[in-house]
Amino acid sequence: MKKAAVVVPIVIIEGEPYLILTRRSRKLNNHPGQISFPGGIWNGRETLIDTAFREMEEEIGAKPSSVIFLHKLEIIETLMSKIEVHPYAALLSDRIFKLNRDEVEEILFVKLSMFYKVEKELIALPSGKETIKYRLPGLIVWGATARIIDSSLEKVSKMLLNSGYIDSINND
Q1: Strands 2-13 and 83-92
Q2: For FRET with 146, which of 64, 75, 83, 155 sits at 20 to 30 Å CA-CA?
Q3: pLDDT for residue 100 is more than 90
Q4: Do the beta carbons of residue 133 and residue 24 sit within 8 Å?
Q5: For residues 66 and 95, what is the distance between their CA atoms, to the nearest angstrom?
Q6: pTM higher than 0.70
Q7: CA distance 104 to 60
Q8: 168 to each of 9, 71, 114, 148, 151, how far by Cα in Å?
Q9: Cα–Cα distances in angstroms (integers) from residue 134 to residues 14, 22, 35, in the given order
Q10: Nearest CA to 87 among 71, 67, 100?
């Protein structure tokens, strides 16, 4: 089974945690235009976390040196392409980004609290398997990205609260 690694980047803006998501370039062969986290396929020559950091820097210009908090999250498997995805939550100290337009069409900042305000919805795939999606204002996050968020939302929120980086998750 192929392996991939992604960073689940978080920035704090005015005391609120935001997830950084990307819209993949529509020029790409795989998953064009989809919402994702920075990351890519593991090449076997580096560690998975190095893959995640290298891809984050290549795709959105965020430097690994800007990571001030990191935690490995639950591994998920993509349902269609059968890739084992290793996600790493990272709190970024810098908000300086430079998009690689060959890979990333846009960067999106979504309040973490938004994922508490909407119900995840089940999606039945043609294969008979099910995945989920989050329908946010002007944005749909689905598939592996939504499943990473779903499996790590509580953990990431607790880590941010317990570490003192935020005082609360504003989900009113």
Answers
A1: parallel
A2: 64
A3: no
A4: no
A5: 9
A6: yes
A7: 8
A8: 18, 19, 14, 21, 20
A9: 24, 15, 11
A10: 71
What DSSP string describes the chain? -EEEEEEEEEEEETTEEEEEEEEEPTT-SSSTT-EE-SEEE--SSS-HHHHHHHHHHHHH---GGGEEEEEE---EE-TTT-EEEEEEEEEES-------TTTEEEEEEEETTHHHHS--EEEE-TTS-EEEEEEETTEEEEHHHHHHHHHHHHHHHHHHHHHTS-S-----
Here the tokens at position 145 are 């990205």
Instruction: Please give the average per-residue pLDDT across 78-100, as a whole number.
Output: 92
**Is the pLDDT confidence value at 131 over 70?**
yes
Asked whether the predicted pLDDT for residue 132 surpasses 60, the reply is: yes
Query: What one-letter code names the amino acid at 154?
Result: E
Cβ atoms of residues 42 and 81 within 8 Å: no
As given in the structure block, the two tokens for residue 134 are 């989050």
- Which tokens in the block code for residue 171? 């989900």
**CA angle centred on 41, ends 38 and 44, rounded to 5°:** 130
Residue 28 in this model has a pLDDT that exceeds 80: no
Q: By CB neighbour count within 10 A (0-12 exposed, 13-18 middle, 19+ buried), where does 3 fall?
A: middle
